[in-house]
Automatic annotation (TrEMBL):
<dbReference type="GO" id="GO:0016616">
    <property type="term" value="F:oxidoreductase activity, acting on the CH-OH group of donors, NAD or NADP as acceptor"/>
</dbReference>
<protein>
    <submittedName>
        <fullName>3-oxoacyl-ACP reductase</fullName>
    </submittedName>
</protein>
<dbReference type="InterPro" id="IPR057326">
    <property type="entry name" value="KR_dom"/>
</dbReference>
<dbReference type="InterPro" id="IPR020904">
    <property type="entry name" value="Sc_DH/Rdtase_CS"/>
</dbReference>
<comment type="similarity">
    <text>Belongs to the short-chain dehydrogenases/reductases (SDR) family.</text>
</comment>
<dbReference type="Pfam" id="PF13561">
    <property type="entry name" value="adh_short_C2"/>
</dbReference>
<dbReference type="InterPro" id="IPR036291">
    <property type="entry name" value="NAD(P)-bd_dom_sf"/>
</dbReference>
<feature type="domain" description="Ketoreductase">
    <location>
        <begin position="205"/>
        <end position="379"/>
    </location>
</feature>
<dbReference type="InterPro" id="IPR002347">
    <property type="entry name" value="SDR_fam"/>
</dbReference>
């Protein structure tokens, strides 16, 4: 369903009226397209504190001065005390007004030093700073923080956050680990792909997306295929026709399978004898009802699809070796699992469980199997399901974020594709909200 309010505020009368009434004024977001694959304008590099960070291998064109930057990258890795924290203000204060509409601000921080509580305090302060700036910057611009342990690992993450692909990702903190933990499958002996990565970084890799016959899952499958992956479109047998339609359009294959059956992992492994590189757990259902009115079957069905099947399938595919080294697992959580939502105790529990899975499994999966585990946590995304929500609740869901609008399925898909990238091997155990910086669940 079209966002008529967003369209109205894009007109001269709409801008005048909403400004006079103090109503939200969302800006149309600039998303990736083949015609406009990058933000138009300079990427401005600023520094706060003393830093020897070398970003020459990140595949970014950066400049030290610009009158109208499309993006600002602030290196604050050298901020170690309150005095140098003032340099964050000094660096950004003069340039923020000049950042283009739908522009990007990315702050680079350092991991918190457990042996230096002054450094830990001011580096943690950067989180409050970026989240607050994201809520005030406006005009479709986003602000994110990257805690960077190794500049060699920064490429894929910075390319994503400084591009139109991250249009609905704001107010997030992403930790990028050391390069030494990355596992390569491209002959780089554990190192990264070249920083000037191809436009099809998933070429030669096989990706399976559950619940991919429609909605967000279909968008994920489309985006992974765009990036070069051979996509397996998995959905329940009742949706086999739609799954085949999607697979045929993308040059992939369809797999009709109920992900909740006990042997789902075994059947996936049998269908993919050559192995799997990317596993996207997208299948999910809702059965909303307040707990006092919720039948037991509504509880168990949601937990089985959204969480138990994810656990069983992941375990089976790791144990069988179907997920190859250098593989990626991306699970779908939700801000409902982070902030809670009335009438969704079952759904919130299942999605919080996905977060727990990611945080526990990620270090072991990387160490034992060379596989990363991350999650995306969508907020209000414009789908057929949200279109059925009553008008006033739907409008509240759209406006209660820093960008004052709903996201699109492609926003979740682009974030998934970044986490699936071979160059994202140092991004592990992260839960990235795709919610326009929702005012809930921060």
């Amino acid at each position: 369903m079209a966002d008529r309010y967003l369209s109205f505020t894009g007109t001269a009368p709409g801008r005048f009226l909403t400004r006079r009434l103090g109503l939200p004024q969302p800006a149309a977001l600039r998303r990736w397209s083949p015609e406009h694959p990058a933000l138009k304008g300079d990427r401005l590099l600023l520094t706060a504190g003393k830093s020897d960070l070398d970003l020459s291998g990140a595949g970014l064109e950066l400049t030290s001065s610009s009158d109208r930057p499309a993006a600002v990258l602030l290196d604050a890795t050298g901020v170690r005390d309150v005095e140098t924290l003032a340099e964050v203000h000094a660096a950004l204060h003069p340039v923020l007004r000049s950042v283009a509409d739908s522009g990007r601000v990315v702050v680079l921080g350092a991991p918190l030093d457990p042996a230096d509580h002054h450094q830990a305090a001011v580096q943690q302060a950067l989180e409050g700073f970026t989240r607050s700036l994201g809520k005030e910057i406006g005009r479709g611009r986003t602000v994110n923080l990257v805690r960077l342990a190794d500049a060699r690992a920064a490429g894929s993450t910075l390319r994503f956050l400084l591009s139109p692909k991250s249009a609905y990702v704001s107010g997030q903190v992403v930790e990028v680990g050391p390069a030494d933990g990355m596992d390569g499958t491209d002959g780089t002996d554990g190192a990264f792909p070249a920083a000037n990565a191809t436009d099809r970084p998933l070429t030669g890799r096989t990706a399976l997306v559950t619940g991919a016959a429609r909605g967000i899952g279909e968008a994920v499958a489309e985006t992974l295929a765009r990036d070069g992956a051979r996509v397996v479109v998995l959905d329940v047998p009742q949706a086999e026709q739609d799954a085949r339609r999607v697979a045929d359009r993308l040059g992939g294959t369809a797999l009709a399978l109920d992900i909740t059956v006990p042997d789902a992992g075994t059947r996936i492994a049998e269908a993919l004898p050559d192995g799997l590189d990317v596993l996207v757990h997208n299948a999910g259902i809702t059965r909303d009802r307040r707990l006092v009115n919720m039948p037991a079957e509504h509880w168990s069905s949601v937990l089985d699809v959204n969480l138990a099947s994810v656990l069983r399938t992941t375990d089976a595919l790791l144990a069988s070796g179907t997920l190859r080294r250098g593989g990626r697992i991306v699970a779908t959580a939700s801000i409902a699992g982070l902030a809670g939502n009335a009438g969704q105790t079952n759904y919130g529990a299942s999605k919080a469980g996905v977060v727990g899975l990611v945080r526990s499994l990620a270090p072991r999966a990387l160490a034992e199997h060379g596989v990363t585990v991350n999650a995306v946590a969508p907020g209000f995304i414009e789908t057929k399901m949200t279109a059925a929500i009553p008008l006033f609740i739907r409008e509240a869901g759209r406006r209660m974020n820093s960008l004052a609008q709903g996201g699109l399925p492609v926003d979740v898909a682009e974030t998934t594709a970044w986490l699936a990238d071979l160059g994202s091997g140092a991004v592990n155990g992260q839960v990235v909200r795709v919610c326009g910086q929702s005012l809930l669940g921060a």
